[in-house]
Each structure stands twice: as C-alpha cells, then as structure tokens.
Amino acid sequence: MHFFKWLYPGMKFKRWLSLFAAGVLLTSIGLTIVFNYKYIDGFEDFIFKIAYSIIGSYNYTVINIVGFFISAIGILIMLVAMRMTIRSIITVLLPDNSDKLVDLIYEKRKLDKGPAITVIGGGTGLSVLLRGLKEATNNVTAVVTVADDGGSSGRLRHEFNIIPPGDLRNCLVALADTEPLMEKLFQYRFEGDSELAGHSFGNLFIAAMTQVTGDVEKALMESSKVLAVRGRVFPASTAKIKLNATMTDGTIVEGESQIPLAHKQIKRVHISPNKVEPVASSINAIKDANVIILGPGSLYTSIMPNFLVDKVADTVKKSKAIKIYICNVMTQPGETDKYTVSMHVKAILEHAGVGSVDYVLVNDKPISKPLQDFYAKKGQYPVIIDEDAIHDLGVGFVKADLINETNVIHHDSEKLAHNIMQMAYGLKTDSKRKKRKFD
User: Fold this and answer.
1) What percent of the chain is helix, strand and coil (3-state, nearest 5)?
2) CB count in 10 Å sphere of residue 62
3) pTM across the whole model
4) In this structure, what DSSP letter does residue 301 have?
5) Which of 163, 181, 182 is closest to 172 using CA atoms?
6) What tens digit of pLDDT does each residue of 136-165 get?
7) Which candidate, 222, 403, 173, 427, places its Cα nearest to that of 320?
8) Fewest CB atoms within 10 A around its CB: which of 78, 209, 251, 296?
C-alpha cells in the first residue's frame, strides 16, 4: 500500500509518529486525572454490560478485544490526521506533486545514504556520467577543468575575465532535478549573426551571476538552486589558466582548443601560469570522497588540466578513496591517436603520479563493423585493452558493457553509474590488483 511507505526504514517518520502517539497517551492520562477516573470506570462497565448481554457471561477476552479494537481506531485516526495535515501543507508548496511526496522523500533519504563520489574532468563525457550518478547517490561532486578557451566559453572568458563557464554549465544541467524546459533553456544556443550568436543561455546566466555575486562559487551555488541540482559543482581553480602542450618533436602548442588541431603526438601538457591555487571546496571534496573518478573525457584537455592545479594531484594520491579512471571508448584524433588503455593510464600516472589511479573501467562490448568504418573515416578507432600492460602499471581493471551504440558511440550514463556503484561497494584499494569482470 502506497501509504505504508511512510513507515519504511530511513524515512524518519516513525519516530515522530511514536512521539505523537506518546503525546496523545499522556494527554489522555492527564485529562482522565482532571476529569476523574470514574468516567473511565463507567465506560468499562458499559462495555461489560454489552458483552454480558451478547454472550451471557463476563468474558475478559472480549473486553481485551474491544480494547485493542478501540486502540486500532485511535491509531488509524492519528495516521489519517497526520496524513491530512501533511497533505494540506504540501498541496500549497507542491500543488502538482503532493501525491508523490512520499516517493520524493523516500528517494531522497535513500540517495542521501549513497557513497560520496567526486568526479574530476570536463567536457561532455563528464556530464554523461553525472546524469547516471545522480540517480544512485546525492553525494556527488564534480571538480571541473577551467582550461577551455574555445567557443562561447572562450569568448566570455576573454570579454568578462572569468573562468570558462561551458563545462560548469553542462555539469549543472546534468545534475539538475528540474523541468525539461529549464534544461532546454540553459542549453539553448543563440543563432543568427548578432553578437549573441553562438552563446548558450546557460553560459550567459553563469557569467551574469558571477558578475552579480562577485564570486564564481557563489554563482554556481545560486545557479544550483535555480536548477534544483543534486550534488555540487566546483571549478578546479578560479585562476585564468592557459593550457599548453609539449609535443614529442619538441614543439609547443598554446591553447586548449589548438592542441588537437596540431595533429602531433603529445608528450606532456602544462598550464600557464604554472602555479595556481585550487578552490578549497574542490580539495575538500576530494579529501571527503569514498570514490574518486577520473573522466570520461578528453585525456589531455579535459582530465589532465585538473591535476596541474596546485594540490589536486597530491590530494588525490593521498586519498584512501577508490580511484577509478573511465577510459574512452574511441581514440581522439590529434590527442590519443593509436593509444591503448595502458597508454591512457600511463599518461595520467606521468602527470599526476603513482597512486592517482587504482582501477581503470573499460568497455568490452564489441562495436559493429559499420560503425567502426564510419568512425575510421574521422580517424577514430576503438581503444585496445592491453591487459598485460595495464597489469604492469600496478593498476587493476574492470571490463563491462558501457556504451549505447546507436548512430554514434558514447558511454551510456545508466551503465556507467551501475558499474561505478558496483565497484564502489565491491572493491577495496590494496597493493594487490586483480582483474575483475562484472556481468
């Protein structure tokens, strides 16, 4: 029965119902003392007479049954009264969802008990993961790169001297628990030939909120209220950083958006200025996490910039949380051409240090030949799982079906969240890494 969900464990309702019942009992006793207990005796005599007239004798069992029956009626009246009281309040606050109140509370209580997960990265891959995780736990924090210098984010960054809002916007929308229209509004991109062309409303909103509040963290907090965000979103730093890459041929490419366009093999990425302060909330989220997730997303331009911010890499390495890297399904032209899974992991270890990755989560669902041919024309190929090489890095790995294969290949948010939660509850960090595969 729908109503009995109020009595489910963790709802924090039974304790107040018991307290209400105790209050009713004490009130009854008090009134009995005030008005003289003889009235109770009179009622009891009345019950005895009725019982005698029916069965022809004084039967205490019948009296007890009557007593329990009256108590049951009293409890039922209490429950109905409480339900109607709550309903009368909620119909004002949530007129369209009053019937779903118990489901909303139950879901929130359950999600509040989920593990604390901190996700580090950027780009569309991060928002895909967050969409799935918000259905498994409310304790999700996204630590987002601020190295983006292209598109609407890049323009706002230069015009208003703020950190790029694009990835932050995507994360807020991914974690939002709001009406679809609001999500469409935040993702809406202006068209035409005006100065607004190419800007998304969400980027402009965050930029305006930053100007109004004078602080990007406050701006994100206020934006989170508008979108009813489950979880938190923080930038890795509030500094205006520039991402550069040193290639294997010794050349240096400046700017996050220009690195893939060079079509050269990346040796290492670095930021300018080379020392920037992190956002304290981001560091605390990493410290408090039960699970730390890296990616999915562009290896060098979405994940790595976070580790180049002061204290981030050290905090991750010192954490006792399970550290999981979600490897990309396909290689990325100009960034990870011909990369295997172990090469992705090795790059992270070289930038962040040993201890930054415990396990790598990889897709093992076969990709159809037509789709492989389609992506080959774009210079993208499935990332090869080289198990022995991964093992040699001292990192464990989990293979699972992670993709949603339609017209394009990308991670499936529900499958990702399912496997992450399995790993969160089923794995522990230790010195001996083991291969695991979940069905």
Assistant:
1) 50, 15, 35
2) 17
3) 0.78
4) I
5) 182
6) 898 999 999 999 888 888 888 888 888 999
7) 427
8) 251
